[in-house]
Amino acid sequence: MTKEIVLNKIYSIRDEARRILDDSRDLAVLNEESINSVLAGRVLQLRNAGMGNIAKAGKLPMENELGLSLFFNVVNFCFKDPYSGLEYSYKNREGLEIKRSTGLLTALRQSGIDWNDLGMASSITEKDWKQIIQLDENKGFYLGEERRLRIVGLADYFMDMGNVKAVDFLEPSGFDAFTIIGRLERSGFFKDRFLKRAQLAVRSIDNNLREGGLSGVANIEKLTCMADYRLPQVFYNLGSIRLSNELEGKLINGVILQTEGREEEALRSSVIVIGKMLSDILEINETEVDSLLWNLSQIMERNGEMKIPHMLVATDKY
Question: What are the sequence ranges of the domains in the chain?
Answer without folding.
Answer: 3-54+223-313, 62-221
